[in-house]
Amino acid sequence: MSKTIALVLAVSTFALAGCQLTPQDRANLGLLGGAAGGVLLADAFDANPEWTIVAGVAGATIGTLVARNTQTGNCAYSNGDGTYSVRPC
After folding, report:
1. Longest pairwise C-alpha distance within the chain
2. Higher pLDDT among residues 19 and 76, named by residue
3. CA 12 from centroid of its chain's CA atoms
4. Domains of the chain: total
5. In this predicted structure, what is the pLDDT of residue 73?
6. Separation in Å, CA 31 to CA 25, 63, 64
7. pTM surpassing 0.70?
8. Spatial separation of the C-alpha atoms in residues 49 and 34, rounded to whole Å
9. How many CA atoms lie within 13 A of 6 on its CB side?
10. Residues 6 or more apart from 14 whose CB is under 8 A from it?
11. Per-residue pLDDT for 56 more than 60?
């Protein structure tokens, strides 16, 4: 991915952040922003193409989850036995 495309994605993500968005729009914006952030971070560390893809997918996942958590105001807390409980942050 060229640096210009990544820059355009990042700028458009921040430009849309101030708009009133539906939950689906927030999730999509989190997905795009997270993916762009992951790819930019991998590019900054000169990662090979395989790790760049992994960083993009991981960023997309994290971005989507953050967008959902900010919508509900809940966070997942580990119980220590492999399960999680969801409570307000």
Report:
1. 45
2. 76
3. 14
4. 1
5. 73
6. 10, 5, 5
7. no
8. 17
9. 16
10. none
11. yes
